[in-house]
Structures are given as C-alpha cells and as structure tokens.
C-alpha cells in the first residue's frame, strides 16, 4: 500500500479530532447531570441552574476555555425520542396570506380558486401551486391575477409590487416572493417567541418552500401551554362594546325566532335568573317558557352585566355561535347594530346552583363596522411585560407608540363619556373589557387583566413583544415524548449497541482469528470516527439513528469479510501472504465488488435522507456516515495491521480451527433448482399480492392521518373495555392495542384530526383523561396525565398527531422513495456492468424482496404481539432492505462477471454455479452478522422500533435468498442462447 505513512498521519489526526469533538458531549452531559442533582426533580430549578452557568467556563483545555453555552452547541444532540420534549410542524396558512395580499378581495373567481385549492391540493403540492392551477381553470383567461380588484391593489402597488398591466406569469413571481416574505416573517416571530420561552437548545427551521416550519423543543413538558404559544397569531385588537341593555332586545327576538326551528332539539332545563332572563318577565309567561324551551336563553349558565351578555358552557359555544351567525337571526339586529360582532371571552370558573365549580365562557358584542376593522389594532404596541394589577393578580402591561397613544386617548375618552367599555381582543378572544372611570388615558399605557396564571401572563407578554404572525399557524403534525420514555430508549439502544458490538467482534475472532482482531480494531476506530463526525456536524441522534449505528457494526465488517475471503482464495492458489493481501485489496480482487456494493447502498441511503424526516433522517445520516467510515477503516486501517503482520512473518491465514473447512468444498447447483425457487417465489408473490388486495396493511397515522397516544397504566386493562369507552366519545374512531407490556396501550383516533387549533388538541386530551382516569387510583390529575415530567411512569408517555395533508405528503414521498431507489440503483448497475440483464436480475430480486416483506406484514399484522404499522419507519426499513439486497446481489454478480470473463471450465450453468459457490462464505458471513445485530435490536431495542427492525430482519433473510435463487437465474435466463454458446466455446477452447 503506497503512502502508508500519510494514511497513518491522517488516521491519527482524524482520531484526535474525533476525540476532541466528542469531549464536548461528555462535558455537557456532566454539567447536565450536575444540574439534575442540584434541582432534585424540579425542572424549573434545573433550567435556572443551566441558564445561570451558560456564560461560565466549564471546559478548560489549557490553551483555551469554553463556556457551557459553547460546549452544548458542539455536543451531539439527542432527538426527542431520546431526550423527551415536543416536536411540531406548523403550517403557515398561505390561503390567509393570499387573502391579505388581495386586500380581502370579493372577486368570485379568486375566492372560488382559494376554495378549490384547499379541496384539490395533492400530496407534495404546495398550496400556492394548487391556487395558481385552480385560478387558471376558473378564470379561463377572462380574469387576471393583476386585476385591480385582486392583487393590483393599494397594498401591492409600487416598486416590487404588482401593476395591472402584468401578465399572470409576471404576477405569479411577485406573489410567490410576497408569500415567501410572509413565511419568513412568521419564522422570525416564532423564533423570538421560542427564544423567550426558556427551553434549552430549541430548534426551528423552515421546510423548503412548503410554508411549513419545524419547531423542536427538547425537554419541554407543558404540552397545552406550548401549543397555545406557537399557534397564537397575536392578532391584538381594541374594540368598543355594546352593553347588555343595548343588545338584550335582540337576544329576546333571536330566542323567539329560533323556537320555530330549534325548539324540538332543546333539552329541558331551568332558566337561570340573570339579567337577560329578567328581560323576559315582561313577556307572556307561557307553558313552553316554563318548560325551558328557549333555544338561546336556556343555555345561559351565569349572570351577565355591563359588556357581558351572559355566561355559557364551553360545550355550547359552537351552537350559540352558529345561532348568532344565522342570516335569519342577524336580520333582527337594529339598524345601528347590523355590524355587531359576537365573540367569546377567556374561559373562567363559576359556581353552579349546587356550589360546585364549573367552567364558563363570557359572551360579548363588539361594535363592528362595514370593513370589520377594530377601533385600534395591536400593531401600535411597542412593548409588553407581565406584571400584577391593583388587586395583586397577574396581568400584562402594554406600552404603545406615539400614534397608538393618541388613538388610545381618543378611544378611552369616548368610552368615559359614553360610560362604555373597551374590549381587548387577542386572536378573536376577549381577554378583558374594562370601563374607563377617570377620563381619557394619555401616555399610551394599558393593561390586560383577568383570571390569569403567572405562566399565562408571561406567555402573553412574550407573544405581544414578538409581534403577530402574518397568518394563522396550524399544527399539522406533532409529537410529544416524555423524558422517562426517552431514558428507556437510551437504555435500550445502548444495551443493544454494546451487545451487538460484542457479538460481531466475537464472531470475527472465532471465524478469522488474528485477522478478525484487526477487523475489530478497525471497527472500534470506525465507531470513533462515526461519533466524531456526528458531533462535528451537530447531528441529532435518534433511536432509529442508534439502530443505524448498530447496523453500521454489521456492515463495518462486511468489506473486511469480502477482502478476507478473497485473501483466502489467493493463499489457496499458492500466493505468499504479502501477495495475497495485495491481490485481495486490488481492483481485480475485492475492491470492485466493495465499490459496487457500497455505491448501491449509498444511493438508497441518499434517497432515504432526501425523502425522510425527523428520526428517519437521523437513521439515514448515521447509515451514510457509517458506510463511508466503514470503507475507510476496512480498506486502510485494517490493511495497515495486515501489512504489519505480514512484514513480521506472522502466521496469518484468515482461518481458525473452527472455520478452516467452512465452504471449502461447497458445490451446490443453484441454477439446477431454479424451477423450484421460481415456483416458491411465484406462490409467495401471488399470496402476498392477494393478501395486500384483500387484507390490506395496517397503515399508521403517518399515512392516513390521526392521533396516537402511548398510555401506561398501573396494572393491565382490558383492551375491548377501553376501546368501547373511548369509541363513545371519539365518535367511534378509537383503535386500541397492547403496546409492549400488558399495562401499556397504543390508542389511535381520527377524532378532530382536521382541526388544528390548540383547543381541539386540549379537548381530545381532556376526553382521554376523563374516560381513562377510572383505571387509575385517585391522585392522577389532568396535568400529570398529559404533561411530561422527570420520572413519569403513568399516563401519556408519548403522543403524536399527523394531519391529513401531511399524511398525504408522507405517503407520496414513500412511493417516490421506493420507486426512485430501485430506478437509481438499476441505472447504476446498467452503467457499472454494461449489460441490462444484470440490472434486470437485481431489480427482479429487489421487487421480490419488497413484495415478500409487504406480504408478511399484510398476513401477520392482526395477530403479531408487536406493532406492524406501515409508517415512515417501515419505509426506511424497506429502503434499507433494498440497499442490502442490492449489496448481496452485486457481490454475487461481480463474481459471476469475473468467472464468465475468466478461465473457468465447463458449460455456462456450471461456470455460473462455480462463481456463486465461491461467494458463499462471504454471503453467509455477512448475512449472519447482520441477522445477529438485528435480532439483538429486535429483542432489546424497545417497542417503538420493533416493527421497524422486524421488517429489516425479514428483508435481510429474503434478500440473501433472492440474490442466490432469483437474481442470478433471471440474469442467466435473459442472456441469449448465442451468448451462452460463445462463452462456453471461449472457456473450453
């Protein structure tokens, strides 16, 4: 090996750099461990401790120091499945952005196109592309995007805007740019909110041009609070209000009108004697009134007064809101009230007739106008801070700009004169509606008070300081992982990795002796390089990523096995040890096979990285890095030791007493049994396709959308009982399975998955809690059931939500990933082998393997004791199977090509059989090491990745079979008879 000294230099340098990079991870973990000990289970105390030492030196190398903030920025970050925390994908409503850019255009073609884009948007298609398609279809050239009543308005006129003379293609460029600017603005607002929230190492990034923003908050625990913080658009407005005396007659009239259509639907209950029902005393006291048949007024559960029209139960707000939006009801408003806007207040707690605390929501009527514009917008707020009001209750203080202060003074002056109130409305919710008792308020200071927790006022001040989002931000995908579950994943992953390393190392020593020791040294160096690169790149380590590292152990020795098997052949042919080593490392020796096999593997890994997301991208990252480091250590590091051993005249033979006779006289007629293997594979394929058509697959929420909860109980519970209980409240959409232990369930539902607001998420969480709390002993509160905390063992340990649009995108990505991987690898094989028959044989084998794995999952998912869902993890497994199947096939094909171009004697089939038999030791060894490490991951890796590992386990076994019994026979059968004859004549001349 030339330049051996240079390789040693770079290897040592790379090792030192890797150790240096990894040292930050060790130091950071030590500091975090100290913080946990100091906090003694108090997360706020732990966070304050870490914040307090952020700028203190914690790592002294003698020539330079690093603060804790610098150290943690350089460490290997743990993914949410290991660290615990919250991961969400927010979809910025491009529809709202377009409406804003059009100045809320009333153009029918424009509005129909918006609606059609929402209905017809396809997987992986952006909303703006769907809108442009819909606009072209609806306008048919009669209406332009640059029309004055659409985008050529005052908002978009001027430099860089839209001129009414523009063509649609010119206008599209400007519109796309403005939409991108809005998403950038939302990104900046969310980043500022998150930075102020106080989570260590938050991650926020835009996802291409989709209008989606990924937010990861490691260690975050308060689920509902964080979702509210992220989704709040911070649309702050100040409205004048109507008093109850002004709007009471309308409510009476509305109630009477609703009796005509709703009285049969109304539940009979007593009317609360409040200020509105008191207005009814002058009306005729009929029998129906006594029975409580008042569709609107009977829903009042608490007394109103001033700007509060009444208090209603949260479950009735949708119904009452629907009543008040009906055209036949709104027509009853007086001429000066026709633009009245009815909005709800912030939920509060009141006592019912029995003195029990119940939740209620106040109803307000705002003085609207033709343009539905507030008297003053929140854009005038320049600063906000959490404080306490005169009663010592939490509140939010605001400071306005000079312009805002002037408007505020006029507004409060008018309210003082008219003895009216000003509603402070945030995201269409009234937070407070104070009156003005001391004259106009100058200086531009104001305060929001009400029934707040301190954390709420902190968050409210935070979102007001950061500013409003340009459009609604919906959570279309989310995942919540508790820290205790993350620790379990770390323990499972670490144990399986160590055990895998031990078994692979032992097998290499038992099978190859001293050469196996050298391979193990190369494996250890490979792991050092792998972790060093992960640390250098700031990569995120996930549980599938750990699985990728364990797989890397199996593949790391693959190149060594190929080289060692070739060296054994060279030694048997009479070459000396140095000659055999040199020949095995040559291009005609093992290098060509190694390169071809690993290129196909890298190509499938790259496809996985491109189309994967989250943990799957982490799996692809470790797999790709592992392939590169494995090649370097196998080709260069191991060879340094082999050459050193040969120079010392060591007795290095690449065999042991245990393995010396393995496969030495192995002669099997692989092509002779092809009729049987074709028949077997045909039967399996037909059964698989039939099962897929009739039985289908257990598609996870990644593919169909939905909510999933991993819930742990104190003791085992009946699955059917829980399913029946939840089916009643989730409209029949409740799937319940045992997940791992008998006291742990996986609950899946599609209930309200299309509703993206934090209110819908909270409602689902509360329904889950209310219906499952009977299975726990007393003391498990809603907060403990839902939110994460250190040491959590009961309640929701993990929760995820995937919206229908994201599910469609994931499914589309999955199809393209699998199809793309097969096409790309097929093209590479055509280029490398220069005969389409090789590519066809490999593709046939891979298609066979994919169908086989899908068939197993279709046939077995209903009764297997572990999850067999088709999700992103499964697609990752399929792509990995494609990579390994190609790997095996390429090794066999390389030997077939070598024998067909060499001097082997016999007929065509005999020559091919000789080539296959010569690879058996390598094929079985590689497959065996892979199967062993996968079995370890399957047993010890944890419930969450068991289905993922099982798919790869089946795929590796089937891939080994197909490379021998499908790929090669297909190759031989597609080579013409004339070519068979030519090869035979050439070899036997």
Helix count equals: 33
| Outline type | elongated
Task: Give the strand tally.
Answer: 24
The assembly state of the depicted protein chains is: single chain
SS-based structural class? alpha+beta
- Please state roughly what percent of the residues sit in beta strands, choosing from under 5%, 5-15%, 15-25%, 25-35%, 35-45% or over 45%: 5-15%
- Fraction of residues in H or I helices: 55-70%
**Model regions low in confidence, pLDDT < 50 over at least 5 residues:** 266-275, 279-291
Cα end-to-end separation:
37 Å
Largest sheet: 9 strands, mixed
Mean pLDDT: 82
Give a brief description:
The protein has 989 residues and is α+β, with helices and mostly antiparallel strands.
Which labels suit this protein?
989 residues, alpha+beta, 24 strands, 8-stranded antiparallel β-sheet
Give your account of this protein's structure.
It is a single chain. Helix 1 (4-39) packs across helix 3. The longest helix has 36 residues, at 4-39. Strand 8 (300-302) and strand 9 form a beta hairpin. Residues 266-275 and 279-291 have low confidence and may be disordered. Strands 7, 8, 9, 10, 11, 12, 13, 16 and 17 form a 9-stranded mixed beta sheet that branches. Strands 5-6-4-19-24-21-23-22 form an 8-stranded antiparallel beta sheet. The relative contact order is 0.09. The protein has 33 helices and 24 strands. It is α+β, with helices and mostly antiparallel strands and 989 residues long. 57% of the residues lie in helices and 13% in strands.
């Amino acid at each position: 090996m030339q330049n051996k000294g240079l390789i040693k230099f770079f290897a040592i340098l790379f090792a030192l750099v890797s150790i240096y990079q990894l040292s930050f991870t060790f130091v950071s973990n030590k500091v975090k461990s100290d913080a946990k000990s100091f906090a003694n289970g108090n997360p706020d105390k732990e966070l304050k401790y870490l914040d307090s030492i952020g700028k203190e030196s914690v790592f002294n190398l003698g020539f330079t120091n690093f603060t804790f903030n610098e150290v943690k920025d350089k460490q290997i970050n743990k993914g949410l499945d290991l660290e615990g925390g919250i991961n969400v994908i927010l979809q910025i409503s491009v529809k709202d952005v377009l409406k804003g850019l059009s100045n809320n255009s009333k153009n029918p073609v424009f509005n129909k196109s918006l609606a059609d884009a929402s209905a017809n948007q396809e997987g992986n298609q952006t909303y703006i592309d769907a809108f442009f398609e819909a606009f072209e279809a609806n306008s048919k050239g009669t209406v332009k995007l640059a029309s004055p009543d659409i985008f050529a308005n005052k908002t978009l006129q001027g430099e860089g805007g839209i001129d009414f003379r523009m063509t649609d293609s010119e206008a599209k460029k400007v519109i796309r740019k403005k939409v991108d600017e809005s998403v950038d603005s939302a990104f900046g607002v969310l980043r500022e909110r998150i930075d102020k929230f106080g989570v260590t190492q938050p991650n926020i990034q835009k996802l291409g041009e989709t209008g989606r923003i990924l937010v990861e908050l490691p260690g975050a625990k308060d689920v509902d609070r964080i979702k509210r913080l992220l989704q709040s658009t911070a649309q702050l407005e100040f409205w004048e209000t109507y008093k109850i005396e002004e709007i009471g007659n309308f409510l009476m009239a509305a109630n009477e009108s609703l009796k005509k259509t709703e009285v049969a639907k109304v539940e009979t209950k007593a009317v609360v004697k409040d200020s509105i029902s008191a207005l009814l005393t002058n009306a005729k006291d009929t029998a129906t009134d006594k029975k409580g048949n008042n569709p609107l007024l009977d829903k009042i559960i608490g007394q109103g007064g001033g700007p509060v029209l009444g208090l209603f139960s949260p479950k009735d707000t949708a119904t009452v809101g629907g009543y008040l939006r009906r055209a036949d009801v709104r027509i009853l408003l007086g001429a000066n009230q026709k633009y009245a806007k009815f909005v709800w207040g912030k939920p509060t707690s009141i006592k019912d007739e029995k003195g029990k605390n119940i939740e209620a929501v106040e109803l307000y009527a705002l003085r609207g106008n033709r343009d539905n514009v507030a008297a003053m917008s929140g854009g005038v707020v320049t600063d906000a801070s959490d404080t306490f009001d005169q009663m010592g209750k939490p509140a939010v203080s605001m400071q306005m700009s000079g312009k805002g202060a002037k408007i505020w003074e006029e507004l409060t002056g008018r309210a003082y004169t008219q003895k009216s109130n000003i509603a402070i409305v945030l995201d269409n919710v009234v937070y407070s509606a104070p009156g003005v008792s001391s004259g106009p308020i100058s200086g531009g200071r104001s305060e929001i008070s009400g029934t707040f927790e301190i954390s709420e006022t902190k968050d409210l001040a935070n979102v007001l300081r950061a500013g409003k989002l340009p459009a609604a931000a919906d959570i279309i995908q989310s995942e919540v992982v508790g820290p205790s579950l993350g620790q379990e994943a770390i323990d499972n992953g670490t144990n399986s990795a160590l055990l895998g390393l031990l078994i692979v190392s032992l097998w290499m020593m038992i099978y190859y002796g001293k050469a196996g020791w050298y391979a193990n040294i190369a494996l250890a160096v490979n792991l050092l390089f792998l972790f060093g690169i992960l640390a250098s790149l700031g990569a995120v380590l996930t549980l599938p990523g750990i699985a990728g590292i364990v797989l890397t152990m199996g593949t790391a020795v693959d190149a060594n096995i190929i080289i060692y098997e070739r060296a054994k052949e060279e030694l048997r042919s009479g070459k000396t040890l140095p000659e055999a080593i040199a020949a095995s490392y040559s291009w005609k020796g093992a290098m060509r096979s190694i390169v071809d096999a690993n290129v196909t593997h890298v190509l499938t890994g790259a496809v996985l990285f491109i189309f994967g997301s989250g943990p799957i991208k982490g799996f692809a990252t470790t797999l790709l890095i592992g392939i590169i480091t494995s090649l370097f250590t196998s080709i260069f590091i191991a060879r340094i030791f082999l050459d050193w051993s040969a120079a010392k005249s060591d007795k290095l033979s690449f065999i042991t007493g245990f393995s010396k006779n393995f496969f030495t006289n192995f002669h099997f007629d692989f092509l002779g049994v092809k009729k049987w293997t074709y028949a077997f594979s045909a039967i399996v394929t037909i059964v698989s396709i039939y099962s897929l058509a009739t039985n289908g697959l257990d598609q996870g929420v990644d593919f169909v959308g939905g909510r999933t909860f991993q819930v742990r109980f104190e003791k085992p519970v009946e699955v059917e009982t829980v399913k029946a209980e939840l089916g009643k409240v989730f409209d029949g959409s409740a799937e319940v399975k045992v997940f791992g232990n008998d006291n742990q369930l996986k609950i899946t539902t599609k209930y309200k998955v299309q509703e993206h607001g934090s209110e819908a998420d909270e409602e689902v969480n509360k329904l889950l809690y209310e219906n499952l709390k009977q299975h726990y002993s007393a003391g498990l509160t809603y907060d403990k059931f839902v939110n994460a905390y250190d040491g959590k063992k009961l309640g929701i340990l993990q929760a995820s939500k995937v919206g229908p649009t994201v599910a469609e995108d994931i499914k589309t990505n999955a199809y393209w990933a699998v199809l793309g991987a097969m096409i790309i690898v097929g093209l590479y094989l055509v280029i490398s082998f220069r005969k389409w028959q090789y590519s066809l044989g490999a593709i046939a084998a891979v298609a066979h393997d994919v169908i086989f794995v899908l068939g197993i999952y279709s046939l077995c998912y209903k009764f297997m004791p572990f999850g067999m869902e088709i999700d992103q993890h499964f697609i990752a497994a399929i792509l990995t199977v494609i990579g390994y199947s190609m790997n095996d096939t390429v090794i066999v094909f390389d030997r077939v090509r070598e024998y067909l171009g060499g001097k082997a004697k016999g007929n065509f089939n005999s020559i091919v059989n000789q080539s296959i038999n010569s690879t058996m030791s390598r094929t079985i060894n590689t497959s065996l090491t892979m199967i062993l490490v996968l079995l370890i991951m399957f047993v010890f890796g944890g419930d969450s990745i068991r289905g993922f590992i099982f798919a790869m386990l089946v795929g590796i076994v089937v891939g080994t079979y197909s490379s021998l019994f499908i790929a090669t026979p297909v190759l031989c059968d597609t080579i013409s008879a004339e070519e068979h004859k030519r090869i035979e004549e050439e070899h036997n001349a």
